[in-house]
Amino acid sequence: MAVPNAVNIEDAINGYMGGFTFILLFALYLRGVDTRIALGALAGFLLLNWPKAKHFMGDAGSFGCGFFIAEGILRGGGIEHPLMTLAFTAPISMDVAMGLIRRKRLGMSFFTADRATFPHHLLARFGGSHVKATLVLWLISSGFVVLYPFPTALLIIFLGYAFALVFLNANSLFPQQSAGT
After folding, report:
1. Where does the UniProt annotation place the signal sequence (predicted)?
2. How many structural domains compose the chain?
3. For the chain, percent of residues with pLDDT exceeding 90
């Protein structure tokens, strides 16, 4: 249930989670897992969900994508190759973990929605451009998938992404003390 919930939490920008799922399922297809039906469905959906979207994923779609990812990873050898599971789910699992830490540090409920996820930070950095933010998120996701066979390179992108998450959440992770306190 962790992957479907993480996909649901991260589904913040039109096209991001559909594209993320497509990237992972295509990588699994290249590893010999038959994901053609899901890939076809996602390709059709992405045409309508691309920024200035006409259709939206919603909870049912994001949980469905999360299920496709988890099931594909299990069929693709994720239990025997835990590094593959980590690499394929790192962009969403790391951001969800950062969100839980952020909420704990701020005394918020874990069930409170916020706009401090990595996709929202990218939207702010790109002046609200969903297209640019989505493309950057897809590029990051592709980087994790492509670098999976190269553990050293994967470690570098993993640490870089972790640093970016900490940097973007620094205000809530390390609140400044006022001079009079």
Report:
1. none
2. 1
3. 14
